[in-house]
Specification:
By secondary structure, this protein is of the alpha+beta class. Helices cover 33% and strands 24% of the residues. A hairpin with a 2-residue loop joins β7 and β8. The structure holds uridine-diphosphate-N-acetylglucosamine (UD1). The site of uridine-diphosphate-N-acetylglucosamine has 19 residues, from α1, α5 and α6.
């Protein structure tokens, strides 16, 4: 069983380059099947979720050519199936984007309903509300969402909750509907804007992405394009917290500083130095850091996907901090693992009250999900002694070459898959 083993206590110092945004890529890859022409996508992150999504796209009959590690050419003229296999949904929730993409292009889709997940119940009622409003006949049968439409017709849709997935999914279907769709109370995350820009580069007519209201004038068909995915906001934020919590000094390259403002603001509040460049940020983690309060919110608020990494940072900041999770109901599961490293955090409902401690000590811990897994690695890098993080498959779903990038910053970390290798690491680091 693969695990990360690390010896903490070294400040991370140096430069790291951020990969393409996983969550933008998941939407863009599915949107790519909406044309029969060639689509070239660059700056794809080489992570598990993306590779599974590419397999799912091949499985329904599209041609997928890996041009290089970060570039793919997709041609969907050969699609045979409007039905996506259950296996893919189980491996990546975001394969629900096939519903919007297939419904838009073929007026028909059959996709297994995604189940719950480690961070709480994740309904897709808002997605389905949107498809119905566009004229889709939506049924749930045998665990799958089955949608058919005779004609997709533009509509005025108000989302009851701000949802990234629903915004992107409905936007895709509405792109090939007849007439105007007005989508209100939408998500404004950078990846929503990136998927809209991608669709526009294929001939869609989408305006307002990044604001509360998106207006989509349906077009008859989409054409081929070449497109480069934006940098990953959450990977960048994770390295920002890595610099802060290890009291290091890291230049994080290939970022859009605007997307990082909520994270930057919090790091400044706790006493770190953050210097912005055109496409980079440098974070200097000062020795004395102080408490702050955080509440996760839809963009431009503080991202829920950065909550665990920031909680770990606050676990080593003087004073009492409060972190309120307002997006997902069950996103503090890693706190028990962190307690085994000596943190002092109490969770009540959706609030974690963190009493900053002076030091953490290494322990064996389990990654409960993707972002919490990354956060536990940060804790291990800041802790005294050796930490082993198990279940790292979660981390590999969303971080490209995580251990290599951290090693490049001086971290003593290795991926091992046997006790013998772990023992070798322990002997090496002393
Ligand atoms: C996306 C991201 C995920 C991130 C989340 C919030 C991808 C692939 N995943 O997930 O990493 O943590 O945004 O930024 O981009 N909700 C409903 N009904 C719906 C849809 C959502 O009630 O139909 C609720 C959810 O339970 C949650 C909130 O809305 O409480 C936000 O969820 P949403 O933005 O949809 O998250 P995802 O798109 O699944």
């Amino acid at each position: 069983m693969e695990q990360y083993i690390m010896k903490g206590g070294n400040p991370l110092v140096g430069e790291v380059t951020v990969s393409g945004a996983k969550n933008a890529a998941l939407g863009i890859l599915t949107a790519a099947i909406m044309t029969d022409e060639d689509v070239l996508i660059e700056n794809l992150p080489d992570v598990r979720d993306i590779n599974v999504m590419l397999e799912a796209i091949e499985e329904i009959g599209a041609r997928v050519e890996r041009v290089d590690r970060h570039t793919v050419r997709i041609n969907a003229s050969t699609i045979q199936e409007i039905s996506v296999d259950d296996e893919y949904i189980r491996r990546i929730r975001a394969s629900y984007y096939f519903i919007g993409a297939l419904l838009g292009k073929y007026k028909s889709a059959q996709v297994p309903l995604p189940g719950g997940c480690n961070i709480g119940s994740r309904p897709i009622d808002q997605h389905l509300k949107g498809f119905r409003a566009l004229g889709g006949d939506v049924r749930i049968e045998g665990g799958a969402v089955i949608v058919h439409a005779i004609d997709l017709v533009g509509s005025h849709i108000y989302l009851d909750v701000v949802s990234v997935g629903a915004t992107i999914n409905i936007m895709m279907a509405a792109t090939l509907a007849e007439g105007l769709t007005i989508l209100e109370n939408v998500a404004k995350e950078p990846h929503v804007v990136d998927v809209a820009n991608f669709l526009n580069s294929m001939g869609a007519n989408i305006k307002g992405a990044g604001t509360d209201t998106i207006r989509i004038h349906g077009v008859k068909k989409l054409h081929g394009t070449e497109y480069s995915i934006i940098p990953d906001q959450i990977e960048a934020g994770t390295f920002m917290c890595a610099a802060a919590v290890t009291r290091g000094d890291v230049m994080i390259k290939n970022v859009i500083p605007k997307h990082l403002e909520a994270i930057t603001a919090k790091l400044l509040e706790i006493g770190c130095e953050v210097i912005e460049f055109d496409d980079a940020v440098r974070v200097v983690g000062k020795p004395a850091q102080r408490h702050t309060d955080i509440k996760t919110l839809p963009y431009p608020g503080f991202p829920t996907d950065m909550q665990p990494q920031m909680t770990v940072t606050l676990a080593l900041a003087a004073g009492t901090s409060m972190v309120t999770e307002s997006i997902f109901e069950n996103r503090f599961k890693y706190v028990d693992e962190l307690a085994r490293m000596g943190s002092c955090i109490k969770v009540e409902g959706n609030v974690a009250v963190i009493d900053g401690v002076k030091r953490l000590t290494g322990a064996q811990v389990n990654a409960p999900d993707l972002r919490a897994g990354a956060a536990l690695v940060l804790a291990g890098l800041a802790a005294e002694g050796v930490t082993e993080v198990d279940e790292i498959g979660y981390i590999q779903r969303g971080y490209e070459c995580f251990e290599e990038k951290l090693q490049g910053l001086g971290a003593l970390i290795e991926k091992v898959d046997s006790e013998k290798e772990a023992q070798k690491f322990r002997l090496k680091v002393g």
